[in-house]
Specification:
It is a single chain. The protein contains one helix and eleven strands, in the order αβββββββββββ. It has about 200 residues and is α+β, with helices and mostly antiparallel strands.
Amino acid sequence: FLMIERHIGKIIIIILSFIAVLIVINSKFFEKKDATLIKPQELESEVYSSNKIKDVKYTTKDADGNEYIITATEGEIDYSNSNIIFLTNIKAIIKLTNSDDILITSSYGKYNSGNFDTIFSKNVIINYLNNEITGEYLYFSLERNSLLMTKKVIYTNLENILKADALEMNLETKDTKIFMYENQKKVNIKSINWYGYNKKISD
């Protein structure tokens, strides 16, 4: 009986050792599995953060020598189209060969690095000579040499203040159209005199 008890004791020890080994292997396996699950999330986070750029600047010239410079405090590349960059706190300069510079500022924007088209949005301000134009949206195309300002447009020069739905400017000819979308509505025009009094000319 003593021999049998010793054999049973050995068998129990072997079984317990085997169970302990299984527990250790099992725990290592799940640790490895958890690590495998975490790594893609970490990688995704790194990729997401890498599409943001600080202190952005783009410069381009067309065939006629007109130069377009746009800067922003931050840019974020669109995942679906790498040519599209969403910008914050924008300053832009359009340097024309046959005229004075046009300065543009806005809170936000969307820049296409493929064709240089830019959409400026929120608190948009254009300064050109003695003219200031404000609005909420500005569509600029270097290829078409055109500016289109829309929504709450106010055009101010030394003589008048004009309020309209939209303003379109041809950068090559400087022809400017100020208009309302509805035919029955008219552009609001006020004259400015040197005494600070605004006289309404038309509604």
